[in-house]
Amino acid sequence: xxxxxxxxxxxxxxxxxxxxxxxxxxxxxxxxxxxxxxxxxxxxxxxxxxxxxxxxxxxxxxxxxxxxxxxxxxxxxxxxxxxxxxxxxxxxxxxxxxxxxxxxxxxxxxxxxxxxxxxxxxxxxxxxxxx
Length: 131
Description:
The longest helix is centred in the N-terminal third of the chain and has 12 residues, at about 5-15. A hairpin with a 2-residue loop joins strand 3 and strand 4 (about 85). The radius of gyration is 25 Å and the shape is elongated. The protein starts with a helix and ends with a strand. The protein has one domain (about 25-130): 2-Layer Sandwich (Alpha-Beta Plaits), CATH 3.30.70. By secondary structure, the chain is of the alpha+beta class. It has 4 helices and 6 strands, in the order H-H-E-H-E-E-E-H-E-E. The chain has helices at about 5-15, 20, 50, 95-100; strands at about 30-40, 60-65, 75-80, 85, 105-115, 125-130. A 6-stranded antiparallel β-sheet has the order 1-6-5-2-3-4.
């Protein structure tokens, strides 16, 4: 029996079930996953108070790595429309800074706004990672 006849017989016997196994699977589409939700550190020292009336939940913010920051070598600045709101808190910035340094796709958006005398409670941002 020739190889061709054998393969045709095998395919007919299996009813074509063997063919899907030979095709390449498509890679899964990348999706945004929540990495963390954090307050904004330093809100009271930057343009946060001035910008407060314009801010809304759901608005995107930019994550900008500041490796030369004299206070924190893992610093990640948070900007809204090109204006500094503050930073990812130092206690929370290890993963975000490492992912940014590796060139990973990250995005962030405002998820909470609260009128409070405590600046740490004013704004929360959600950081997402495309995996």
